């Protein structure tokens, strides 16, 4: 029964993250820097990392990008490559900091590190796709938004875990 609950929960997390991935792409630009996003789907990945571990978080993040790209119509295009690179690098950085950086890093700090890694990976992927290092001028602007968006997503997950019975 425990294995069934685990698989069901992970499947629901993939579905929720995929939906958030698509819904966030539909939102009007809320932040003044094009390409900067709130990272709503990353909340699900951070939740899975905290509850189940890095492997499951990596699966959820990867499947979220595939599902979101299929639903959003950009599967295997440049946006898919950028989203996948950002998601995978972000999960790897958050997993490492969750395992080795705690208690020095809270979920909020881990989320900020993940948001930063996500932005760096996406700029690297974009620069490779267009074969130009000229895109790196944009990185400082994206990193300015990694702090507030990472704080928001990390705080939301931390609150959820402490306020919901059975997860904390």
Provide a compact summary of the structure.
Helices cover 76% and strands 0% of the residues. The chain is mostly helical and 168 residues long. The two termini are 20 Å apart.
Give the C-alpha Rg.
15 Å
Helix content: over 70%
Q: How many H/I helices? A: 6
Give the percentage of residues in beta strands: under 5%
Overall pLDDT score? 85
Q: List segments where confidence is low: pLDDT < 50 over at least 5 consecutive residues.
A: none
End-to-end Cα distance: 20 Å
SSE string, helix = H, strand = E?
A: HHHHHH
Structural class: mainly alpha
| Shape summary | globular
Number of strands: 0
Biggest sheet statistics: none
Q: How does the SSE layout of this entry go?
A:
Elements: H1 2-26, H2 40-51, H3 54-72, H4 78-100, H5 107-130, H6 139-163
Helix pairs in contact: 1-2, 1-3, 2-3, 2-4, 2-6, 3-4, 4-5, 5-6
What does this structure look like?
With 168 residues, this protein is an all-alpha fold. Helices cover 76% and strands 0% of the residues. Helix 1 runs antiparallel to helix 2 (40-51), helix 2 (40-51) packs antiparallel against helix 3 and helix 2 runs parallel beside helix 4 (78-100). The mean pLDDT is 85.
